[in-house]
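Quick one:
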Amino acid sequence: MTTFKYKPDGEVLKAFMKDDTFFRGIRGPVGSGKSVGCCVEVFRRALQQKKGPDGIRKSRWAIIRNTNPQLRTTTIKTWLDWFPENDWGKFTWSVPYTHHIKKGDMDLEVIFLALDRPEDVKKLLSLELTGIWINEAREIPKSIIDACTMRVGRFPSMKDGGPSWTGVIADTNAPEEDHWWPIMAGDVPIPDHIPREQAKMLVTPDNWRFYTQPAGMKEVKNSEGELEDYVPSKEAENQKHMMKSYYPNLIRGKTKSWIDVYVMNRLGSIQDGKPIYPMFAPEAHVATEEVPIAANLPVYVGLDFGLTPAATIGQKVRGRWLIQQEIVAIDMGIVRFAEVLRQELATRFSAASEVIIYGDPAGDFRAQTDESTPFHILRGAGLRAFPAPSNSVDLRLEAVSS
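Output:
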């Protein structure tokens, strides 16, 4: 007889596992127990599957990771830590990796897939599954997530009673702000540059739910709001299953951006190399709420061109620069971008006394096709824009720094 004991340590993790929603995602720091929770969730749902006509509880799951090395060294390793071959049956190490568990009246087939090869994606699209677990979902594009939702609910077949529960579960460390996860979770708004049709795909369906675990540690700041240290957090989940020194040892020698993502569970990216503005501190320079528009004061716009045009919009209030918005576009020409900018200025910034627009001086060169420049196009859209007086790198860096 094989015994199995598991109890989730943490209110968020418990709520995630109790939920029956079709798509469930949980985001947390490293060591928060989310991957183990997902392993157990696959097993738990297999136990809850109703018996078929033959008296057997049949289910078939796929477990997905972005690359084969990550699949073997992390996902499969975690799975076999909880379901070792000696107790739960032989693991098939040829592709596709498979663990077929038959215990009592339970028949659970688990297929492990890496999606770094086209044939792996084709394999996913041919499977008939009960459910899917996506491990480290920040590495998986939204198109694959959508494909996963099509492959579940197809095993066991309806003639054998169908699945008792079907759906997709996912776990991840904190992704970047423009990733599909925080957008669909409602943590950030849909970016302006995303086309309308694509934006519709990022509206959260009513059968999707996202859970966010608390940070692994707590920041200690001085009287001026500057970060001084990190201390253990009482709110951190999975503490009963970790050494008390786990997080204190983990953060040694790491950058703040690394700690923010992997320990503090904050959206962002890992800084690599020397930052352009080392004095920038989000806790001091990023407002906690929307910065209001000051009426009867000019609005200043800074523009960059190319096929990834961008604009920063702000005001100078009592000697202090307030940057109220940015607009960033991908694969968009200046004609379309000018219309987006014009609409934004006409709506949100209509109370301003005037709009002053400066752009990259390189944008004043004529195109070889029709002799127009980005500045000509902007003026044609009703936007009075002028080249910046200088393109000096040092001057631009010092202006932002000051």
